[in-house]
Amino acid sequence: MWLERISGGGVDLVDLAAAKAHLRILSDETDAEVQAAISAASIHLDVDADGFGGLGFPLVAQQWSSKAAGFVPSVLRLPFARVTAVTEIRYIAPDGTPGVVPATDYLLNRRGRDAVVTLLPGKSWPNLIDRPDAVDLRFTAGFSDVASVPDDIVEAAKQMVSFYFHNRGADATDGVSEEVARCVDRLTMRYRRFAA
């Protein structure tokens, strides 16, 4: 099983005016540096195109594809805490023809923070071709838009903006100071799949 982001991602969690207010900057001279810090902070908190890193889930609505060789638990248990919908389940039949499982055959169930696709009684999954991408489960995950992102995640983004602005040589792949990391963890822990 593997994930691929189809669309979305790369959305700034803080706008320029809010970031400048947080940094207490009045002039426009450093706008490019502030914008770079906003982008780095947003990338740091979001998952990458393979579904790893950040807070462990897409922050603002993204379309994803989960592919597997069959209708196995690893593909039916969706990987993120903030799944909002299954948009389509595609498959490849044994003769190589593509198909789509009718939406009336399955249900997206929530079990705590888990999202699991369950086959409805009396229905069965179609037969598949023998190849690793025979199933392509497409779904949407993340908050609907930036305005829907909770304030404490936005505050974590502002803390990261401050770090990246004051450490201009750093980027999203570099580590952050222990103090900033603890602050971000405290602000965002309850949104993670396995909150303490």
Question: Can you put this structure into words, describing what you see?
Answer:
- With 196 residues, the chain is an alpha+beta fold.
- It is 28% helix and 24% strand.
- It has 5 helices and 8 strands, in the order E-H-H-E-H-E-E-E-E-E-E-H-H.
- It has helices spanning 16-23, 31-45, 73-76, 151-166, 178-188; strands at residues 2-7, 62-68, 77-78, 83-92, 98-100, 106-111, 114-119, 135-141.
- It has a 5-stranded antiparallel beta sheet with strand order 1-2-8-4-5.
- It is elongated and about 65 Å long.
How would you describe this structure in keywords?
196 residues, alpha+beta, five-stranded antiparallel beta sheet, elongated
What order do the helices and strands come in, and which of them pair?
Elements: E1 2-7, H1 16-23, H2 31-45, E2 62-68, H3 73-76, E3 77-78, E4 83-92, E5 98-100, E6 106-111, E7 114-119, E8 135-141, H4 151-166, H5 178-188
Antiparallel strand pairs: 1-2, 2-8, 3-7, 4-5, 4-8, 6-7
Helix pairs in contact: 2-4, 4-5
